[in-house]
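Here we describe the complex-level prediction in full. Unlike the single-chain runs in Section 2.1, the two entities below were treated as one system.
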Amino acid sequence: MNPAGNAHVLLQAEDLLVHRGGVTVLDIPTLDVFSGQVLALIGPNGAGKSTLLLTLAGLLKPARGRLLFRGERIGNGGFDYRRHIAMVFQEPLLFDATVFENVAAGLKIRGVGRAEIGRTVPEYLERFGVGHLAKRSARKLSGGEAQRTSLARAFVTKPEIVFLDEPFSSLDTPTRDALIGDLERILRETHTTAVASTHDQTEALRLADRMAVMNGGTIAQIGPVAEVINRPADEFVASFVGVETVLPGHVLRISDGVFTAAVEGGEIEAVGDVQAGEKVLCCIRPEHVTLSTNTSFSETSARNVFSGTIRKITPLGLFHRIYLNCGFDLVAYVTRQSLEELLLQEGKSVTASFKATAVHVIRRGALPPG
Amino acid sequence: MQSMDLILEGIQKAIYLIFTLDKEVLGITLLSLQVSGTATLISLFIGISVGTAVALTRFPGRQLVVSLINTGMGLPPVVVGLFVTIFLWRNGPLGFLEILYTPTAIILAQAVIATPIVTGITLASIQHLPANLRLQILALGATRVQMVWLLVKEARLPLLAAVMAGFGGVISEVGASIMVGGNIKGYSRVLTTATVMETGRGNFDIAIALSVILLLLSFAVNAILTQIQQRERPR
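The structure predicted for the assembly as a whole is:
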C-alpha cells in the first residue's frame, strides 16, 4: 500500500505532451509507476486516460517527453520495451482463430517453440478460467469469456507491466465482479505491475494500490488510494472520486456477525462476510457520520465512536463537508444550521460516530499465509 | 425453336470437346488459366501490399489516392487495352520489350485490370478491422512486419474475395486481351477472344462450347476458393 515501501520505480514518464488535431490532449510533467503495484487512472470520459495508457505502453508517440523503463530511456521505436509489456483494451480484440491460438499469439510473435507454447498456454487458460474453451472459435465467446481470453493472452508472456484500458466496462455486473476478483488474485500471485484505467471507483478500490485522478489531460492528484479519496486535492477530485472515506485495514476478530478491523490509527466495527486476517477496505459515506461537541458521548447505539479534531471545512451549498482527523481520516456532512449551532470550526475537537451497518466493506483478498 | 437447338447442340459439342480433350480447346483453356492466373498473382502481390500500406498510413493526398483506387476497380478493359497497346507499340515507351501480341502482353493488361480490384478490396478489408487491433498486435510485442502480416491474416476471408473478384474480372475480360494479344491461333488465343471470333464467324456451337468451358472454369476456381473460405472459419 505504501508507495515508498520497498517498491522501486519501474516506469517513469517525464514531461509528456501529446497533441491531437492541434489540441493538447495530454500534459503530464511527471509520473512514476512502482514495481509490483497497481496504479488506477480514473477520470471522466475524455480526461486522457486511454491516451496516457497508450503513451506509457509505447504505442503512441508523444510530441514531447520521455519514458524511462528501469531507469533507461525507451528507444528503438519502443520495440524492445513492447516485449516487456502487455495491453488489454476495452474490446477483447481477439484474432479470428481458436482461444488457444489467441492466447499463444504473443508467444508465437516472440518465436517461442511449439513445445513451450503447449506447456504454457494451457496453464494460463486455466488461470483465467477458459481452459475448457481452448478449441472454441474466439468469434463464439461471450463478452466475459472473450475478455478472459484477452487477459490470458496478455499475461502468458509474463509481462513486467500490464496496461489495462477499461477492460471491464463493457461487461455486465456479475461477469465483471468475477473477472475483477480473478484479475486481482492473478496480479497478486504474479506480482505484475499494472496501470489500469477505469471510470468506476469500486473497480479502482478493489485493484489499485495507487490512484491517479485525471482531468482534461492532466493528473489532478496521484497517491495511495486511501489518501486520494480521503484527502482530495481539490473540488474536482473530491467530486469525482466520490465522497466516501476509505480506510484500508485488516480483520482482527469476528463476533456475532460484527467484525473489528484494524485501520491505521484505530479500530472500526463493521458488518460483513469476512475472514479473520483478511484485508479489507472500510468505506464510510459522510452522510452516515454524526458529529457531536459533547466529548463524553457514550450513550449511543452507534458501534463506532471516535474523538477527533476538525482539519478542514468546505462549504458545499446547502451543507458543509467536514474533514476530520480521528487518528485516521474521516469525512462528515453537516448542515449549515448544525455548523452554526455546534460552532464547528477548523481545529475544534468533536466526537464522530457511525453505525457498524453504515460501513461498506470491500474485500481485498486474504493475507498471504504465514 | 432453332435457337434452342443451337444452344443444346453447343452444349453437346462442349461436352464432346471437353471429354475428347480436344487439343486446340485444351490449349486455349490452359493458356487462359495460365495468363489470368499469373495476372491475378501479380495483382495480389501489388494490390495487397499497396492496399495494406494505404490502409495503415496517413499522408497528404491520401483521400485522392483512395478515390483513384476505387475508380480503378471499374476500369473498362478496352481502355486498359488501348493504353497498354500504346505503351507496347513499337515506338511506345515500352516498345523495346517487343511483347505486343504475346501472352505476356495479355498478362500485363490483365494485371493492370485486376490490381485496382485487389487493392480496393484489401484497403477496405484492412480498414474494416477494429481500429485498435493494430495497437493490440504491437502491444503483443510484434515487429512492424509481424503486425502487417497478422492484420493481413486477420483479413484473409475478405482477401479471398479479392482473389475471386480479381480472377473473375480478368478471366472473363475480352477487350484488352484481343487488343494486346491479337488472338493469334495457338499462341495468344484465350477463351474469350476465341469465343468472340467464333461468334463473329457464325460458329455458334463452338462459341457456346467455349463459353461453357469458361463458365465451368470460373465456377471451379470460385468453388475451390469458397471451399477454403468456409473451411477457414473454425467452429
